[in-house]
Amino acid sequence: MGDLDGDGDLDLVLAKGRHDPLRDRVLLNDGKGGLVASDLGPTADRTYTAALADVDGDGDLDVLTSNDTPDKKLVYLNNGKGQFTVADPRTASLLEISTETRSLTSRWQGPGRRTCSI
């Protein structure tokens, strides 16, 4: 949970923890008690967990997913409006580190820098 679209209310990312591929979902709070749903990524995968962090340092929350094999770990970059694109794997070198199925983010490198473990 976090403010994904910059409107000050809490939105959700729903990771579909299954062995069968399913689409992860973004649920944006409309501020009136409703949620507007959209797919997080372009394809279905086997996501077990998702974590929110400002991966690219642009001030909005991005999504990191931890998937069951054979799917890759993915980083989805937020455009600030709750719309996401998959990060270029050349710049997100952490995408194939392990088959662990949990996501964790923490500030390990000092102020303003975030390191993630997927």
Secondary-structure blueprint:
Layout: E1 12-14, E2 25-29, E3 35-39, E4 47-53, E5 62-67, E6 74-78, E7 84-86, E8 104-106, E9 115-117
Antiparallel strand pairs: 1-2, 2-3, 4-5, 5-6, 6-7, 8-9
SSE order in H/E notation? EEEEEEEEE
Largest sheet: 4 strands, antiparallel
Q: Mean of residue pLDDT?
A: 80
Beta fraction: 25-35%
Q: Which percent bin holds the helix content?
A: under 10%
Shape summary: globular
**How many helical stretches?**
0
Question: Can you give a write-up of this model?
Answer:
The protein has a domain of 75 residues. Helix content is 0%, strand content 34%. The strands form three sheets. A four-stranded antiparallel sheet has the order 4-5-6-7, with no helix packed on it. Strands 1-2-3 form a three-stranded antiparallel sheet, with no helix packed on it. The two termini are 18 Å apart.
Can I get a quick summary?
This protein has 118 residues and is mainly beta. It has strands spanning 12-14, 25-29, 35-39, 47-53, 62-67, 74-78, 84-86, 104-106, 115-117.
Question: Top keywords for this entry?
Answer:
118 residues, mainly beta, globular
